[in-house]
Design a protein that fits this description.
alpha+beta; 6-stranded mixed sheet; 30% strand; ph1033 like fold; 6 strands
C-alpha cells in the first residue's frame, strides 16, 4: 500500500550565524548548506522540529550591524551533525556516539537577501515584533521559532518580495 504524504503547516524560524563564519552571501553562492554546529539542547530541539518547506530568517550575529539579512527555506530535515564526530571541528563532541548522536543539522536553501539588514534596533522599535525570542533578555539561542506574523513583518521591514 502506498504511503500518503502528510500535510505540514509551514513553521517559521530565525537562525543566527556570524557572517565571518557563514554569511547569507555564502549561502547564496552555495545554493544550500547543512546548518550544523548547533550545540545548545533547546536550539537542537528546534532543529529537530523543522520540516521541509519551513521558512527561515537568516540573522547575522556579531555583524556590523547585527540583523536579519535574508531568508532561507528548509529542504532537508534533521540528520546527525557530522561535525560532532570530527576531532578537527570546533563542533567535535567526544561524548556523542555514532549509534546515538547528540547533535543534528538541517539543510537550508537560499531564498532571498534583503537590500539592507533589519537590525536589532529596528526589531526592538517595532511593536509588532516585541514578542520575538531574539529580543528577550538573555536569549542567545542560535535557532528560535518565530510566528507567521513576525516573519511577514520582518520581510516587510527588509523590503523583501518573498511571501510569508
Amino acid at each position: 500500500m502506498a504511503r500518503q504524504a502528510t500535510e505540514h503547516a509551514t513553521q517559521y524560524w530565525l537562525a543566527k550565524s556570524e557572517p565571518a563564519v557563514y554569511s547569507i552571501d555564502d549561502l547564496r553562492r552555495d545554493g544550500a548548506t547543512l546548518w550544523d554546529g548547533v550545540r545548545n539542547y533547546q536550539a537542537r530541539n528546534f532543529l529537530r522540529s523543522m520540516q521541509v518547506n519551513d521558512r527561515v530568517l537568516f540573522h547575522h550575529s556579531s555583524g556590523d550591524p547585527s540583523g536579519v539579512v535574508g531568508t532561507a527555506v528548509v529542504v532537508g530535515v534533521a540528520q546527525p551533525d557530522p561535525t560532532q564526530f570530527d576531532p578537527r571541528s570546533d563542533g567535535f563532541d567526544e561524548a556523542s556516539k555514532r549509534d546515538d548522536p547528540r547533535w543534528c543539522a538541517v539543510t537550508v536553501r537560499f531564498e532571498s537577501r534583503f537590500v539592507a539588514p533589519v537590525t536589532l534596533q529596528m526589531l526592538r522599535a517595532d511593536r509588532a515584533l516585541s514578542g520575538m525570542r531574539i529580543l528577550q533578555r538573555g536569549n542567545r539561542l542560535s535557532v528560535t521559532p518565530v510566528t507567521a506574523a513576525e516573519f511577514a513583518r520582518v520581510l516587510k521591514l527588509g523590503g523583501s518580495s518573498s511571501q510569508a
